[in-house]
Amino acid sequence: MSDREDPVRGDSVRKAVFLDRDGTINVDKHYLYRVEDFEFLPGVPQVLGELRKKGYLLILVTNQSGIARGYFTVEQMRDLHRHMQCELQKSDAQFDDILFCPHHPQGIISRYAVHCDCRKPGGLLFEQAIKAHGIEPGISIAVGDNDRDLIPAEALGMKCIKISEENDGRWVTCRNLAELKRFI
Known about the structure:
By secondary structure, the chain is an alpha/beta fold. The protein contains 4 helices and 6 strands. The longest helix has 16 residues, at about 75-90.
């Protein structure tokens, strides 16, 4: 057994899908933090469940500058993520890890009002997940609705897919997560 082998899955390397949250997993609502406002985009639980069945780890990587801006707290965001995970568990589609950046240099909460490497397009959260889970970037995928979601993944050698109505020529695009099936 190599040091990269996962005894549970039996893989010698692990593949993952790194996903942005707002606009990729859920309807993008301005600084979403209230459980009652959370709404999955169509087909998301089913697609995530299919990805898990195909052996992909599911990693959520999200910028949450609303924390630094004082719109909501880390605990309120965690409550939303717990709700999301409970709903996803019904389809065996829950995330294996959720990583978030609470920072923004123009925030009003001093401990979060900083420049950092974890805020996308910085790659620190991707690097942390890769190390923590033994993920092989070359066989992994990143999905997001904004270029900043994909820039760190591209730098790490992942296949990048942008959720967009338009193809700007830089990224492979699909209109929603349900269309991701054609790339997996």
